[in-house]
Amino acid sequence: MCLNASKAQTDSTKYRKLKVDEVNFITSYYHQNGQNSAVTGGIGSERLDDSGNAIDIQLSKFDRKNNKHTFGFELGVDVYSSASSDKIDPSTISSASSGDVRISPSASYLFENTKRNFTLGGGLSFSKEFDYTSVGTNVLFSKASKDKNTEFSAKASVFLDTWKVILPIELRPYSPNFKYRQEQSAPRNSYNLALGLSQVINPRLQMSILTDIGFQKGLLGTAYQRVYFADNGNKPYSEKLPDNRFKLPIGLRANYFLGDRFILRGFYRYYTDSWKLTAHTAELEVPYKITPFMSIAPFYRFYSQSGIEYFKPYKEHVLSDTYYTSDYDLSKFTSNLVGLNFRMTSADGILGIKALNTLELRYSYYKRSTSLTSHLITLALKFK
Amino acid sequence: MKKNIFLLTLICIALMFPSCKTVKPFQKSRINDAEMSLSSRKIEKYESNFLLYREGASGGNGGKTGGGCGCN
Prior knowledge:
By secondary structure, chain A is mainly β. Chain A has one helix at 2-16; strands at residues 19-33, 48-62, 68-82, 99-113, 118-129, 132-144, 150-164, 185-202, 205-218, 226-227, 237-238, 244-258, 262-273, 278-285, 288-291, 294-305, 333-345, 356-368, 373-383.
């Protein structure tokens, strides 16, 4: 009896112990170029280089009722340099705005009831860069069917963000068309509700449908982006956009295991918003399993958008326009993204590192019909 | 526009359910493959980020929808 009591105590201790599930490290390098910089009114260099790095750790434990508790912590550090943001003050050779560092920590918690197949959770996030601070929170719920072939999920999130208004140098300390002065704080709040439904169709096919109903309010334009007018000579104003925006995207994913080695990962999204922008996105990725533990996946993404009603190129706006922007990110264009993803996984370690469970390398090339091009290379490591 | 979105959603749901079979746990070896996951890969994080900055559309893919950054 003493031995049995001791074993029972050990078992319950095992189930309560917090352990590290995995640690993920991601590092990336992004290089972009183009000739439609929004900072200089839709003309000029869009050269930008960004190094993104993030580390996240996931811990979990089981309680006496066999419910799972998962804790996640992430820290992101991005360092960028930009030829266009350097032109906020073009009189300097290189200004304080030519580069910046963005820090973004976050934490999350999930409670999984393994008996009734439902999950509750929440998270907090923070982000800081030279002119933008964000505080975010979210709550989520998901419920799976008894056979776990169907799952419904809902996630509500709020971001209470603040711009530090930076005006183009020639418009300081205030711009006649703009309600905020130089270095004044302006709110930018976002409210989102994500709803998802996933379904296993058969032993080789599963699909999901996802929507993100979003509403934004506050300073939605970028104060240091200039707009030049046909009837105002060479004198620009700050970009001016409506102070609210309603967004509605609907995405559909389908993954199919073809034969023994190929997987087809497909995605389509339709998007519309209150600024009259509509967009279509279609992606296909085809992982090929070289071995059960190694795969190579070419991918292609096509995107097209209609452009918002407030966009016009350099010196095509007139002063009587209520809202105006020359930001080509909001213009009518199509884009193509192609790339390759390599993935290797091993329970015994990779490259002589026993804890290294997965190594992934991804390269993508992006080309927009507005002449912007970019390259991105990313390395992801998972330790278990 | 609202009618188109409603019809598109109905078509998507209609495509998903009629051909469903009850798939037992022992039949899920392919479904449970890591690369069959319905969410984006972790390695796509920075790709999703730059697309959020460079394009007007966002959301519907499990990623960010516009808050937390000075993006679209």
